[in-house]
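Q: Structure tokens for this one, please.
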Amino acid sequence: MARWLVGLMLFSSVGFSAQTLAEQSVLDMLLDKQNLSPQALMLRIEKQYSGVISEFEIDVERGELIYEVSLIDTENETITEFEFKAKDGQLIHQKVETLEADDKDGLQAVLLMEEINQSFYSLVHKAMDGRHGHIVEAQIDHDLGISYLEIKLIDEAGKHRLAFDIKNQRPLPLLTWD
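A: Here is the predicted structure, written as tokens:
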């Protein structure tokens, strides 16, 4: 998606920034009721596949909304990357790899989630806590001794970010910014 947004930023029109136009286009796609919501896809993945979702991201390919999801399976020590069509949840691509050293922060957060019996979807739900907006990206991470979920949202007012402490089940005010 980053390449798509960068490409749009190069072509700005009078009175509107290209970034604003790109954000509105993505928001329009997320508002389309024919598409599965990111949360609906998360629930589906958690029921159909073993492991814990560690990352969710949207992308736009040839004008179509695509959901990209990473799933860590601690038992098999693998990370699986998926691409799904937002329209119907159809699997487009799946790639399984062995966990590597750069996956250790996500793995540490996943291990904590398993220990406290939390799913990615439930963390997203708690972190959103009545906030309105559409998920553009959500990712678990571990840094500075804290395992957390970071969510990037978009709504009519623009982009917003928030962070949620996995262990203590509360927002992280120092990492929350709008």
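A few notes: The two ends are 21 Å apart (CA to CA). The longest strand covers residues 52-61.
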